[in-house]
Amino acid sequence: MAYVRTVKTASGARAVQIVHSSHKGSRDIEHISSAHDDVELELLRTVARQRLVAGQGELDLGLDAPPEAGGPLPITASRMGHLWDALSLAYEVLGFDAAADGDEVFRQLVLARIIEPTSKLDSLRVLEETGIAPVSYRTLKRRLHAYAGEAWRERLAALCAHHVGLGPATLLLYDVATLYFETDAGDGFRESGFSKERRLEPQITVGLLTDATGFPLMVNAFEGNTAETTTMLPTITAFLAAHRLTDVVIVADAGMISEKNMKDIEAAGLSFILGMKIPEIPYIVAEWRKAHPDTEIADGQVFTQPWPAGPTDKRKDQVRYYQYKHDRARRTLKGIDEQVRKAEQAVAGKTAIKRNRFVKLTDATKTVNRDLDLEAKARALAGIKGYVTNIEDPTPEQVIGAYHQPFQIEKSFRMAKSDLAARPIFHRTRDSIEAHLTIVFAALAVSRWIEDTTGWSIKKFVKTIRRYRTLHIQAGDYVITAADPLPDNIQHVLEAIKARAATH
């Protein structure tokens, strides 16, 4: 026979004991645990009942019975509490909750895209698995058109600009990406054009403006057949007008710059640090080689060439820098050797003729272009990278260092296209595509904030934190809250998020 009793411990706490009595009158006492409140006491009583009746038959009287003998306590709710709360905190610190007027649909779509990017319909499943009660799909569809509006995105962009603290010395990075659609017919917005992914399907062109750390400031969508170089100035001028800025420093790669682009940037009164295309050997480099015929250029050597404005030039004075790097030269020379080898194979009929500057076609005759000037010039330019700026009193370290920041915007694009699955595969109309990009833009901002705060990639953060859930367990008439214990490293990461949010 066994019975349950509650006792007080030496410290005054209550404890539950199961007392087992044998036929000889001896008693074995099993201590379960101490309880400090009614909820814990009820839990202990429930556990005790399960142990007392384990293996015994029960008469069903139709009454509310305790949990099945020996069975587990039922879990009534399970939530990725640590993950959702951390992402929500970042969302609120950036001001998105206020900008969206507390729109819960927008919050759910943004955070669900970070947790698991998928279609809008399937995001409801992601929310349920997270432990968040999702809105209805009808409500979701009804709200999407609002997120496509310029006013909505402008409010988010204003908050992002406030977060990075814009000023005259702010570096703005600009780059574009193309997002294709699995359709064979254009519609005026989704159109075939130059694809960075070398695809033939209709696409859109997306321009992204960030600060020097890669934090997103503005995103614009253009028709898929829009030339990349024509997207930069409209995006930048619109951003400056929205934030009443007269000058910033634009940083962009050589592929984004045309001669007209540079003149337009100058005409807008903007400062810039740009990569340069070098079609010919720079004069200053050629002169140095003449003066040092038996000397190799030192690794990291920079040649400085002032480019003052003439009396009729409508521009600021410029400075051009040419930097030589051994590793860059090695890769370039290896590429030249490979192009020559492929040209020889193509001429011999062993491979198909592809775009190759070392293949010379004369009528129907193909030969290897052994033009010594062409190959000599290509090899002479190996390792040299050009930069041009119109900022006042520049230094090579300042200009070249700033130019190398574009890897940050490339990282943001990679995050948007991979971690956040930015390609709007499930959208067809322009409004729905614009709404999708607004959601991705907000998700990218939250993700970059998390990464900057924790030092973890957003992929690692989500994958790690989502495993630790908060549970609600039914114990008799009470609901117990339980949680997976957190390792120290995760505890430190979550504390870092809370600490930064507290200082905002």
TrEMBL record:
Transmembrane segments: none annotated. Pfam families: DDE_Tnp_1 (PF01609). Residues 190-444 form the Transposase IS4-like domain. Coiled coil: none annotated. NCBIfam families: transpos_IS1634 (NF033559). PANTHER family: PTHR34614, TRANSPOSASE IS4-LIKE DOMAIN-CONTAINING PROTEIN. This is IS1634-like element IS1549 family transposase. It comes from Amycolatopsis tucumanensis. The lineage of its organism: Bacteria, Bacillati, Actinomycetota, Actinomycetes, Pseudonocardiales.
